[in-house]
Design a protein that fits this description.
alpha+beta, Endonuclease, Chain A, 4-stranded mixed beta sheet, globular, about 45% helix
């Protein structure tokens, strides 16, 4: 029996579009986590349900979200989104864009710690 799709066609199409334009923070983090550099595979803009997390490791069930100042105004949406992703078995960790830009080593250490806890 085939498994159900993880997302809908509209969300998947939007994810493809988002992959074409990285924010500076996304680009900086992606350069450090891509190609299994942390021992796990991450995907960018990986559609899950109606949501598109910034980075996702399906095998490790870890999602990394980068938040800019606009997320202060979307706290309720982010809470709902996190609740849904966690209901799908994922652990969601969040970093401010400024943390990625100014303390990438600290962010990488936090991701590695989260990966260890997921195993």
């Amino acid at each position: 029996m085939p498994r159900p799709p993880r997302s809908n066609p509209t969300t998947r199409t939007h994810a493809i579009e988002l992959r074409k334009e990285l924010t500076p923070a996304e680009g900086k983090l992606w350069s450090r986590i891509r190609n299994d550099q942390l021992g796990v595979n991450f995907r960018r803009q990986h559609a899950i349900g109606n949501y598109i997390p910034d980075f996702c490791s399906p095998k490790s069930k870890l999602i990394i979200e980068l938040d800019g100042s606009q997320h202060v105004e979307h706290e309720e949406y982010d809470t709902e989104r996190t609740r849904y992703l966690e209901s799908q078995g994922y652990k969601v960790i969040r970093f401010w864009n400024s943390d990625v830009m100014n303390n990438i080593e600290g962010v990488i250490l936090a991701i590695m710690y989260a990966l260890e806890k997921q195993q």
